[in-house]
Amino acid sequence: MKENSPHSLGRLGITADTIRTYDRRIPRYTSYPTAPVWTEDVRGPEWARHLEETSPQSGPLSLYVHIPFCRKRCLFCACNVIATRRQGMADQYLDDVEREVGLVRGLHRGSEEVMQLHLGGGTPNYLNSEEMKRLLDILKGHFQFSPGAEQSIEVDPRIATREEVFRLRQQDGFNRISYGVQDFNDDTQAAIGREQSREASFSNIQAAREAGFESVNIDLIYGLPRQSPASWHDTIGCVLEAKPDRIALYNFAYLPGRLPNHRRLEEKEMPSPAARIEMFMEAHDRLTANGWRFLGMDHYAREDDSLTRAFERGTMRRNFMGYTTLRGTDVLAFGVSSIGDFQSAFGQNTKKLNVYRAALAEGLLPVERGMVLSEEDILRRNCIESLMCQARLDLKDERVAEIARGVRPQLEELAADGLVRIGGGALEVTLKGQMFLRNIAVVFDAYMQEMQNKVTFSRAV
């Protein structure tokens, strides 16, 4: 990297020593407390009781459905997937989902209004048109979707057709679509086992626009094998040409100890931490100079996108789906490995399809672990979410100020390194600090000490 590069780390004061200091293994904070803290004290019966007792206080809902199937598992993937081409798998799975939705609806005594629906995976467009219609009929048969509900779906552009994209919008009612692109470079795609032509990505984005989707997102990952600042420059050029409404820009989490498919990747082919930050800044500078707003650790959106408006209103929040537009909605989740976030408690379904199926056959919710949050958990969760979503933490609340006083030495170290500013009754994250947002959030994590020797998290840089 040249020091006089327009994307140089030097202009933010990020040195090799800075990278060494902050390149720690820490959580991504899609939840707090993070999943490794959860226990088997919350299983199916406990989650059922929690839903029944707390749902009268709940308001509008978000629904998440996990479709685990993929035709092939990509080498970089960290999602809970089932790679299969067997006929009938999806239809049988929908039998199970229907049982689970019925059980949950029988326990839920609050509002049945749905403000958001998200299908994730796996590959949600693994479902054919009949299967997708059946899934939506199941959900809409048990819940009342509001007229303006956000309905989003993750789509693999390698298997999606123009006709399918139009059907998802015009027949099935989805109004937001997200494409897994990761990188436009052929060499990187070969290294991660995801050959995807530029034509497939571009034609899908164009089809989504013509079909009338309100927002089109693409996922990108930096830090993959065979990536370089030069190849990444070309990838960002493709993004500028494609003009998606939203961009999710993720730092690759390499976890060979936990994920067998990661062991097939060549670690020596991965870019260095310094190159990763250079690639992030390349993306950040070019995107923000060309009409996208930086909203948080890994999301960008056009000025007129609803996510940007939520950011400006202070209603954007972060959860297991990334950044979303609605603060305060409880999440009911269905399918293997899915995670409910309901009335200050988390409940995660089993990751094993046979166990999921067996529990439902017995009339039990397939939740295998979770956590009911204490008042302090909720307070710290709000602190971390504020930093992640607004790059700012208001210290005027005495309860928040007390937590901040307890970690004052760590905050002063961050301030000395130029990552945060403390003053005026607030803690503010600097642009330099945005490169290390997870390192700032971890200061407020009361469980990190007990976890760090038990769990292998991804590297922050």
Record the SSE blueprint:
Blueprint: H1 16-22, H2 44-54, E1 61-67, E2 69-70, E3 82-83, H3 89-107, E4 113-121, H4 129-142, E5 144-155, H5 162-170, E6 176-182, H6 186-191, H7 198-211, E7 215-222, H8 229-242, E8 246-251, H9 273-288, E9 292-294, E10 299-302, H10 306-313, E11 317-319, E12 322-324, E13 330-334, E14 339-341, E15 345-349, H11 353-361, E16 367-372, H12 375-390, E17 392-394, H13 398-406, H14 408-416, E18 420-423, E19 426-429, H15 431-434, H16 437-441, H17 448-451
Parallel strand pairs: 1-4, 1-13, 2-3, 4-5, 5-6, 6-7, 7-8
Antiparallel strand pairs: 8-10, 9-10, 11-12, 14-15, 15-16, 17-19, 18-19
Helix pairs in contact: 3-4, 3-11, 5-7, 8-9
Question: Can you give a write-up of this model?
Answer:
This protein has 461 residues and is α/β, with parallel strands linked by helices. The chain folds into two domains: 25-333, Alpha-Beta Horseshoe (pyruvate-formate lyase- activating enzyme); 374-448, Arc Repressor Mutant, subunit A, CATH 1.10.10. 38% of the residues lie in helices and 21% in strands. It is built from 17 helices and 19 strands. It has helices spanning 16-22, 44-54, 89-107, 129-142, 162-170, 186-191, 198-211, 229-242, 273-288, 306-313, 353-361, 375-390, 398-406, 408-416, 431-434, 437-441, 448-451, and strands spanning 61-67, 69-70, 82-83, 113-121, 144-155, 176-182, 215-222, 246-251, 292-294, 299-302, 317-319, 322-324, 330-334, 339-341, 345-349, 367-372, 392-394, 420-423, 426-429. The strands form five sheets. A nine-stranded mixed sheet has the order 9-10-8-7-6-5-4-1-13, sandwiched between helices. Helix 3 (89-107) packs parallel to helix 4 (129-142), helix 3 (89-107) crosses helix 11 (353-361) and helix 5 runs parallel beside helix 7. The longest helix is centred in the N-terminal third of the chain and has 19 residues, at 89-107. 45% of the residues are buried.
